[in-house]
Model the fold of this input.
Amino acid sequence: MKIAVVGTGAVGQVMSKRLSELGHRVFMGTRNVEQSRKRKESDAWGTPGIGSWIEDHPNIDLVTFKEAAEKGEDLLIFGISGMAALDALDQIGKDLLRDKIMIDISNPLDFSKGFPPSLSLCNTESLGEKIQNSYPDLKVVKTLNSISSPIMANPKLIEGDHVVFLCGNDLNAKAKVSTLLQSLGWKQDNIIDLGDITNARGTEMLLPLWIRLMGKYQSPMFNINVVKAPVLSPGA
Done:
């Protein structure tokens, strides 16, 4: 497939590399290609500067947001920080986003008051819903947003069963995203479809818990599993 990955941080780098390894043609979107190529130093989280990273991955094309959406005909993976999400989509424009399937990995994290961040949207709205409402012809599928980037692309880094949630309004879009997740290594039984895009409220509200767990374990290499009780027969 021809896939656009919007965002050059940890999520964008990990997903672009993995998708390229799986044989997909990847177009990585950034606001300004020239400025991005000048960023060589790693950030405070240890994510390599995109300028040095892209030099090691010549088979991945670094282009503008708009060019990525144009060339990534089959799918768009959205890994932009939540506070910049709508601005990035505005740069792409409604025409290019019409009828496109988009995996939304963004979260509405607000760092304005320091760490740990709060959620700028929650309870009665989510960033996934806000994106879907702003771009009604875009097929938004919220998934992978409550998992660290290495595990997103390779769930086998954790032994045993653990789950990934997804939600969205378009059944065919969710089916295509589920197939992609399975190609990354997610077991079909561990992909939990929560329903329509309003369920992004729940998956985005996992982030405050995720951040505290990362602090507890001093590592992002964990995930959540859902264990159900056996269904008992009537009268049991």
Observations:
- The beta strands are 2-6, 25-30, 61-64, 75-78, 101-104, 109-110, 118-119, 139-143, 164-168, 191-193.
- The chain has a mean pLDDT of 94.
- Residues 2-217 form a domain with the Rossmann fold fold (CATH 3.40.50.720).
- The two ends are 50 Å apart (CA to CA).
